[in-house]
Design goal:
The protein is mainly alpha-helical. Among the domains are: 35 residues; 68 residues, no CATH class. Helix content is 51%, strand content 0%. The chain is built from five helices and no strands.
């Protein structure tokens, strides 16, 4: 259906596009981009490089695969992370690469805690903190003792 002020040409443009029958319109920019892409592919094939995928740049080749994870943190820890991140970024103003992110700080902290746990076991800092939390929890929670039920009669 033609829009107001347009004439119906009788062509089914959508069908032409889906079949690939529509005329190809090439702008100078598209032509330049295509030529550049072909040139880069030739260069990559000459040196045996594989084209980077996604958003990876030069630094992306050195990244480890990551997976998104969501954990709940206390407001206090989130505030401390924000402050630590701000302080570290301020101290490393000279263009620290890779960019220092909160994720990087959290990953490093977890790696350090796990390494400590692996090497020191029950004497590690994380085990000490877990035991302290368990003791505090035991103080605040009343001990539940189930009332004994009378034995069923025979």
């Amino acid at each position: 259906m033609p829009l107001m002020g347009e004439q119906d040409s009788g062509k089914d443009i959508m069908s032409e596009l889906l079949r690939g029958d529509s005329p190809v319109v090439v702008t100078r920019e598209q032509n330049s981009i295509e030529q550049l892409t072909q040139y880069l592919r030739r260069l990559e094939s000459q040196v045996g490089a594989t084209p980077p995928s996604g958003r990876q740049g030069v630094q992306g080749r050195h990244r480890r695969p990551k997976k998104k994870a969501t954990y709940y943190l206390s407001k206090r820890v989130i505030h401390q992370l924000d402050m630590a991140h701000g302080n570290l970024v301020e101290e490393n103003r000279e263009g620290f690469r890779p960019r220092l992110s909160k994720s990087m700080i959290v990953e490093m902290a977890i790696q350090a805690a796990l390494k400590d746990l692996e090497s020191r076991g029950r004497k590690s800092e994380i085990m000490r903190r877990i035991h302290a939390i368990q003791k505090e929890y035991a103080k605040t929670k009343p001990c539940r003792v189930q009332a004994s039920r009378p034995a069923p009669e025979k």
